[in-house]
Backbone:
């Protein structure tokens, strides 16, 4: 049986600089560990997090685009996708997305989800088979944030 903790307190960290983010990483590690234990207790042995990243580079190695994905519980979460304005509308975004989805599927993911704003990439994701399942109005004020999902296999 574990000991009962003593007096508890809270600390607020508003991370505005990289150093502040780095200082809280160890603290956040304890939170992730606790969440992982809780998820395993309820769901059994499932994938709890692996990162997949695909980059678009020119001949000199300069990054002109990329997509950052996170695997969790049979799902791919697309954290971000960006293509430099100098090479947009040439199919690179679709290529990055497809490579990410394919790798996620090979890793056992059956679904993908992503969110974007109405002024960003809604038509792009719809073109690639994603369906809106929720919309958040006034986020930020005057705009909408759309949440999409897609079956991969």
Residues:
């Amino acid at each position: 049986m574990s000991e009962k903790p003593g007096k508890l307190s809270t600390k607020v960290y508003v991370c505005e600089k990289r150093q502040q983010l780095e200082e809280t990483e160890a603290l956040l590690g304890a939170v992730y560990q606790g969440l992982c234990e809780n998820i395993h207790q309820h769901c059994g042995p499932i994938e709890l997090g692996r990162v997949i990243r695909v980059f678009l580079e020119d001949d000199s190695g300069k990054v002109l685009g990329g997509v950052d994905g996170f695997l969790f519980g049979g799902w791919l979460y697309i954290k971000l996708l960006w293509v430099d304005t100098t090479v947009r509308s040439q199919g690179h975004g679709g290529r990055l997305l497809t490579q990410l989805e394919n790798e996620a599927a090979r890793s056992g993911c059956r679904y993908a989800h992503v969110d974007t704003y109405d002024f960003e990439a809604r038509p792009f994701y719809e073109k690639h088979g994603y369906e809106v399942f929720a919309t958040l109005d006034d986020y930020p004020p005057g705009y909408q944030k759309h949440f999409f999902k897609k079956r991969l296999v």
Remarks:
- Residues 12-45 form one domain.
- The beta strands are 50-57, 63-72, 75-83, 111-117, 131-137, 144-151.
